[in-house]
Amino acid sequence: MHIDISHLSKSYGETLALDDFTYSFHSGISAILGPNGAGKTTLMNLITDCTRRQGGEILYDGTDILKLGKCFRQKLGFMPQNQGMYEQMTAWDFLAYMAQIKGLKKKAAQAQIRELLAVVNLEAAAHQKVGGFSGGMRQRVMLAQAMLGQPEILLLDEPTAGLDPEERIRLRGYIERLATDKIVLITTHITSDVENIADKILLMNHGKLLFASDRIEFISGCNADTLEGAYVKRLHTP
Ligand SMILES: Nc1ncnc2c1ncn2[C@@H]1O[C@H](COP(=O)(O)OP(=O)(O)OP(=O)(O)O)[C@@H](O)[C@H]1O
Ligand SMILES: [Mg+2]
Question: Residue whose CA is closest, atom 17 of ligand 1?
Answer without folding.
Answer: 41
